[in-house]
Amino acid sequence: MSVEGNIKLKDGWILTEDGFIVNLVKAEVYKVNRTGLEMLKLLQEGKDVKEICRIISQKYSVDIDTVKTDFEKFIVLLGELDIVELIENE
Question: What is the CATH number of the domain that holds 36?
């Protein structure tokens, strides 16, 4: 899965305020840490990958390349779990 562009939670998945990703139909629940929760909330706001990495980099004073690498690993993992998908440009 490429992490360029816009990404969203697949249908059926919800993100709770306390960092759980839940799919009631599949009876699956995952817990993300605070940074993962922030990244997912930014995705839900419609931010793209570059904007999310910039925001996280500035907030935590972490090099943008480090944030991008960590974000890519996180999104690839969520993709392997069938939780996120790439939004097609219209």
Answer: 1.10.10.10
Distances (CA, A) of 45 to 7, 14, 33, 50, 87: 11, 14, 18, 14, 13
Q: What is the pTM of this model?
A: 0.87
Q: What is the pLDDT of residues 16-37, one digit of tens each?
A: 999 999 999 999 999 999 999 9
Tell me the two tokens of residue 87.
């939004």
**Dmax over Cα atoms in the chain, in whole Å?**
39
The total number of structural domains in the chain stands at: 1
The two structure tokens encoding residue 63: 């090099």
In a domain, 90, yes or no: no
